[in-house]
């Protein structure tokens, strides 16, 4: 039987019923990787020997009566997570031989839950691109169209899931690095509330794996169904035992509603700073129609929505401030001279990027204060709404573009060109204020490419957008593989149709 496209939930049920063993699942996943990954290039570090040994241990544990959330389930891990004895390079050639001595906390949690790690997935250089390619491991292609990107920086994980290489993966998100690859590859991903999933051990080499609190970035789950996202989030979430875990336990509130008809949803399909492509707009509207048909209260405008232009500008400054923090002094001084020459009237995102790269500590404090006002605005909005539906990026997956001058790249939106990084404005809507956001499939473009949308929810109420994602999956369908295996979830039962 073909198991590679079934959900983790169904694989767990089959393992419990004795219909398949973990060794069989692992061997089948490895065979598929060996067959198909030559052209996709999603798995950059293969751990097949370790995986087969872990699968044998999982089968033995099940024979002893053990039952863990992911026992025997094949998964993958984004390359940026430390795994003892395996390279962690972040795609940086100078660190191609770096091997950490201990696992990242999230890798330890995966293995404690019984998961079988098949390998590590490809990333862009330093995780700083919307595509996944680097000099060490090459380019990851989109399984739907090999001439196009799978996204970044969790593009390897998204491509692996779309290609049937494991049931789950873990990634990270600072500039939509979970959500954009999910959108481009037709899978599900969840950007958790900031601070919900501790990132210890997801650190650029050769830095020590300290239990830090990140300001914008998060670690999060990727899957082929909404329920699997929730399953993996439960494994990943919870305070770091070295810090907050000493005093705190995690109790996420339940979803606000169980029925689609009870949800109050704000739908956005336009941004003041960038156009929305017709394919993405159609995906947003498809979700909006499904919400209306399901009896949900849907609005297209609200005076409570924080200012989108200010949010994008503020996010851009904070994002590029962190990316430029370790620039050489000479480069920093050149940037500062260029920023000083900007006209005060220049409020473009290009200007925001340049100003962000030389942001002073005083400016950062001011930006943080303005961010808190946005967070308060979202609290007020979520007193009236349960979720916000909006694009992830303005277009489906775009053709590979390896121009080393990132600021010179352009994206095409229905025939009009825009600066490459302007497409991140939708990413910043949730990231700036630390809100949870679930990426879901919303159909395909006229060219047959996947199109996704994001469901943004209230801070620390991650189960609300996840539940909405599950309800929408039941109504409009979910993941469909590039080779024609659709997955449709009905209640707790997964049905496969060909």
Automatic annotation (TrEMBL):
The Amidase domain is annotated at 24-464
Query: Sorted alphabetically, which InterPro entries does this protein's record hold?
Result: Amidase_CS, Amidase_dom, AS_sf, FAAH2
Question: Sorted alphabetically, which PANTHER family does this protein's record hold?
Answer: FATTY-ACID AMIDE HYDROLASE, FATTY-ACID AMIDE HYDROLASE 2
Write the protein's name.
Amidase
Q: Which organism is it from?
A: Fodinicola feengrottensis
């Amino acid at each position: 039987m073909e198991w590679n496209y079934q959900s983790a939930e169904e694989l767990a049920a089959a393992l419990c019923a004795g219909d398949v063993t973990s060794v069989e699942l692992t061997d089948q996943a490895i065979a598929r990787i060996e067959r198909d990954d030559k052209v996709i290039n999603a798995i950059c570090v293969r751990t097949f020997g370790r995986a087969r040994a872990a699968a044998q241990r999982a089968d033995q544990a099940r024979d002893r009566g053990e039952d863990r959330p992911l026992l025997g389930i094949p998964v993958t891990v984004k390359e940026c997570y430390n795994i003892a004895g395996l390279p962690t390079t972040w795609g940086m050639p100078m660190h191609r031989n770096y091997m950490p001595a201990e696992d990242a906390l999230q890798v330890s949690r995966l293995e404690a839950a019984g998961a079988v790690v098949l390998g590590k997935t490809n990333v862009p250089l330093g995780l700083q691109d919307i595509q996944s390619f680097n000099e060490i491991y090459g380019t990851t292609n989109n399984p739907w169209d090999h001439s196009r990107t799978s996204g970044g920086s969790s593009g390897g994980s998204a491509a692996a899931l779309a290609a049937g290489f494991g049931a789950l993966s873990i990634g990270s998100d600072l500039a939509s690095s979970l959500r954009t690859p999910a959108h481009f590859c037709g899978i599900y991903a969840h950007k958790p509330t900031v601070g919900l999933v501790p990132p210890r051990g997801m650190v650029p080499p050769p830095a020590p794996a300290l239990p830090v609190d990140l300001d914008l970035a998060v670690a999060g789950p990727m899957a082929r169904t909404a329920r699997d996202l929730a399953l993996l989030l439960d494994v990943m979430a919870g305070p770091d035992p070295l810090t907050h875990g000493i005093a705190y336990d995690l109790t996420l509130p339940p979803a606000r509603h169980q029925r689609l008809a009870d949800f109050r949803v704000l739908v956005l399909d336009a941004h003041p700073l960038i156009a929305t492509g017709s394919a993405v707009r159609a995906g947003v509207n498809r979700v909006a129609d499904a919400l209306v048909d399901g009896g949900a209260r849907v609005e297209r405008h609200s005076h409570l929505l924080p200012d989108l232009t200010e949010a994008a500008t503020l996010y851009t400054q904070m994002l590029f401030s962190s990316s430029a923090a370790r620039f050489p002094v000479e480069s920093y001084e050149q940037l500062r001279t260029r920023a000083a020459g900007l006209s005060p009237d220049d409020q473009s995102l290009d200007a925001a990027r340049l100003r962000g790269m030389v942001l002073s500590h005083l400016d950062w404090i001011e930006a943080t204060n303005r961010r808190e006002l946005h967070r308060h605005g979202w609290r007020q909005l979520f007193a009236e709404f349960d979720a916000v539906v909006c694009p992830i990026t303005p277009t489906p997956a775009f053709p590979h573009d390896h121009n080393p001058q990132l600021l010179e790249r352009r994206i095409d939106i229905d025939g009009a060109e825009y600066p490459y990084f302007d497409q991140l404005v939708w990413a910043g809507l949730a990231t700036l204020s630390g809100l949870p956001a679930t990426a879901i499939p919303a159909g395909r473009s006229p060219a047959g490419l996947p199109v996704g949308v994001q469901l943004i929810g209230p801070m620390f109420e991650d189960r609300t957008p996840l539940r909405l994602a599950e309800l929408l999956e039941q109504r409009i369908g979910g993941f469909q593989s590039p080779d024609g295996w659709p997955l449709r979830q009905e209640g707790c039962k997964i049905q496969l149709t060909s």
